[in-house]
Amino acid sequence: MRATVVVPVLKSRSRGGQSESASTRTPESRLEEATGLAQAIDLDVVNGSIVPVNDPRPATLLGTGKIGEIKALLDERDSGLVIVDHPLTPVQQRNLEKEWNAKVIDRTGLILEIFGRRASTKEGTLQVDLAHLNYQKGRLVRSWTHLERQRGGGGFMGGPGETQIEADRRMLQDRIIKLERELEQVVRTRQLHRAKRRKVPHPIVALVGYTNAGKSTLFNRITGAGVLAEDMLFATLDPTLRRMKLPHGRTVILSDTVGFISDLPTHLVAAFRATLEEVLEADLILHVRDMSDADNQAQSSDVMRILNDLGIDEAEAEKRLIEVWNKIDRLEPEVHDTMVQKSAGASNVVAVSAVSGEGVDTLMEEISRRLSGVMTVATIRLPVDKLALLPWLYDHAIVDNRADNEDGTITLDLRLSETEATELERRIGNGPKSDKEDWER
Fold it and tell me: Which phi and psi angles does 64 have, rounded to 5°?
């Protein structure tokens, strides 16, 4: 379908009476992003317009002059779909469709459409369906404008149009309740999975970031997984978890989550809360940023705002978050070198290229360092009846030296975190007293 993208740039009044933009994003970057969103669902974008709006109209958002100009463009380009990169009320959407004689969808509707196409698991489909129904609930009037709205006899105030709307609203509400119940089961299932992971305490590392920042490409680079990774907004939607080994042998779980975006619809944040809670459970969060994007600072602010909404405040973020400055391979040599030097001097930043692999080893070392904390040095002799602990030791500790003794026992020189040292002591303590005596810290 041939589509036209319209980016309204609303103005707000400062205290001094001077007009200033209500958005922190540049209009050009908003147009580029909206075009990318449209192309992500195979729309043919034939025109894109930036429209200043000094006085938003309650009925149409845009002024009559701009509506007429866009109408002429639609007729000239034979475009039957208009994407307005701004939330529209049901009335504004209906009136613009009448004026332009074309289908109109706003930013929320466009993102919902993309998510609907990207969802591939039952959970993802449930989440998108719930968000879509909540979005549609207030827009039913648009589907029944052909029905009369006259006063009826016999004490009935409304016409048949209102009756049909109410019937549809009840059907929608019933469907919403059903989906919410199914999603409650998803939440319970995820909680059970998390409980099982806690019993085998592999640390969890979550990837977050603005959509198309390169999370899935980095995920594939680190884990060797085959997750879909394309230069496309919201190329992947459903979360993926994989085990991986850090440089010193420790096993962790890496989680690739849905990409964030500015003005993420509240329906989606609520529907995807079960998925986003994976981030809340993570021991370490990797905030992947596309440093080749001129708007990367604004994108970073959008991501941090959503994390804050989820319950991760700035103080907690400083302890649990590493900024991954991705796509440095796209930078000019001088900018590249400056950025690498700047990241080297920061305590929570690593510059990488997920495509070329530059900086990935440094990132893995930083993940290992952050998760290990204060390392404990230990020497342990495993008796024959405790050899079953060997796989656990190689998964959770760094084995510096191993000696296989003639009596069948094994002596190991280990480095491990305080938490894992306590867990090892507990596991060894379950055996005979002699086992405890062979534990040295």
Answer: -65, -35
